[in-house]
Amino acid sequence: MATVTLDRIAKSYGATPVIENLNLAIADREFVVLVGPSGCGKTTTLRMIAGLESVTAGTIRIGERDVTQARPGLRNCAMVFQSYALYPHMTVAENIGYGMKVRRVPKAEREAAVLNAAQILGLEPLLGRKPRALSGGQRQRVAIGRAIVRDPDVFLFDEPLSNLDAKLRIEMRAEIKALHRRLKRTIVYVTHDQVEAMTLADRVVIMNGGRIEQAADPITLYERPANRFVAGFIGAPSMNFLPAEVVGGALRLAGGATFPLPRADLRDGSITLGIRPENTAEALPGAPFATLTVRTVEPLGPHTLALGEIAGAPVTVQLEAHARPEPGATVAVAFDMDKMHAFDAESGAAL
Known about the structure:
The chain is α+β, with helices and mostly antiparallel strands. The protein is about 25% helix and about 35% strand.
């Protein structure tokens, strides 16, 4: 079984702690994505699993094996890097099979493994080409092929799609997801792109400042974020946050706009209201509304985003496709209060 267990992991560079008391259990054949802003510790965590970074404290287990102090070659992990790291003078076939050649795997076995990986990744017509004759997506497939022939227990991906254009990233996401279904192996994948994380993962681990903020399936993260950080990180555009007061079963914004409160569990007092742009719209006559002062408009085809302020707080609202309010104009905005989120005004924890 290729489970991966991180038990009370800490990592420091000199006197500077990067990760403190990180605990994570990854199931056999699970696709887990580590995501978070730059400097949150996600790549360091991946490199510790691979053995490319030492562990300051704690234990790493792959299956039943304690690999905390094991060198990378003994962990049976295969890592795919952001930079592809292909040998420019070698053909695709030679790049894929090079590691096996170094390990003195017999030629016939090596060629069979290379051909199998090429068939999985659609690289058969390209086996004789050099990397300079390949597109970015094809080079990334070669890097993945090199990992496949190792027959690892765990695949480790370090931002493998960040060098690709937007269209190619979408295509490669689908290929990596299909590859996981086909190979049935454990995958730990690092990205800074929350859309990539949501579309690929069985479970997303959101990191911030060297700690895990929340680990859950994508829909749970979207619908029930544990705190304001997670709520703001997941979703595009980001969730809106507005200071508000709960008063006698109603919600009053800083500017005085008042909305009925669908939740009876919230006590009177200050909170932060969270509302996603997709849960906003131009208010119908007679409906409760807040006044948005428009700063800019972004037409997106199926709908239009209006960016501006409500009572001094930055807000993005979703309008119908042909709406074009001018900068400086005001728009009456309704909220779908059944989709609201409430956060503690001081700690940011979900209420």
